[in-house]
């Protein structure tokens, strides 16, 4: 997965094309990610403790991660990244636009 929890991402396709949001959750097995404020779907729910009235709630649904582009925290561009490892061997992404690594 090229997206991680906490990343800011840009939606590249679909109804929410052009929207930006923070990754709330990554579902690697499904190749999907849940993004804050993006891809709301209406769900009909029964009354429960958090929603005593029941009815229709809008909730984010996971998006296909291949439609998401990571936004650089340094320059705000989503031009892509190359991968490299830091001194401790952790995988880092390096912005193609400004060189920021994160
Ligand atoms: Zn950048």
Write the layout of secondary structure elements.
Elements: E1 8-11, E2 20-27, E3 32-35, E4 40-45, E5 55-60, E6 63-64, E7 68-71, E8 81-85, E9 91-95
Antiparallel strand pairs: 1-2, 1-7, 2-3, 3-6, 4-5, 8-9
Bound molecules: zinc ion.
List keywords for this structure.
five-stranded antiparallel β-sheet, 2 domains, 0% helix, two-stranded antiparallel sheet, mainly beta, SH3 type barrels, binds zinc ion, 102 residues
Write up what this structure looks like.
The protein has 102 residues and is an all-beta fold. The protein has 2 domains: 65 residues, SH3 type barrels (Roll); 29 residues, no CATH class. The protein is built from no helices and 9 strands. Strands 6-3-2-1-7 form a 5-stranded antiparallel β-sheet, with no helix packed on it. The protein has a two-stranded antiparallel sheet with strand order 4-5. It is elongated, with a radius of gyration of 16 Å. The model has no long low-confidence stretch (mean pLDDT 93). The site of zinc ion has 8 residues, from loops.
Helix % is under 10%
User: Helix/strand-derived class?
Assistant: mainly beta
Kindly state the number of beta strands.
Answer: 9
What is bound: which ligands? zinc ion
Label the overall shape.
Answer: elongated
Write down the Rg: 16 Å
What's the helix count? 0
> What's the multimeric state?
single chain
Low-confidence stretches: none
State the CATH class of the largest domain.
Mainly Beta
The CATH architecture of the largest domain is Roll
Estimated share of beta-strand residues:
35-45%
CATH topology of the largest domain: SH3 type barrels
What string, H for helix and E for strand, traces the elements in order?
EEEEEEEEE
- Major beta sheet summary: 5 strands, antiparallel
- Taken together, the total number of domains comes to 2
Report the mean per-residue pLDDT as an integer. Answer: 93
């Amino acid at each position: 997965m090229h997206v991680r929890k906490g990343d800011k991402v840009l939606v590249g396709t679909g109804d929410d094309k052009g929207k930006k949001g923070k990754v709330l959750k990554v579902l690697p097995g499904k190749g999907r990610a849940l993004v804050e404020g993006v891809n709301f779907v209406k769900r009909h729910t029964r009354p429960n403790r958090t929603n005593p009235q029941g009815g229709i709630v809008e909730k984010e649904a996971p998006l296909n991660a291949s439609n998401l582009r990571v936004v650089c925290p340094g320059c705000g561009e989503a031009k892509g990244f190359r991968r490299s490892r830091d001194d401790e061997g952790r995988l880092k992404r390096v912005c193609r636009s400004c060189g920021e690594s994160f």
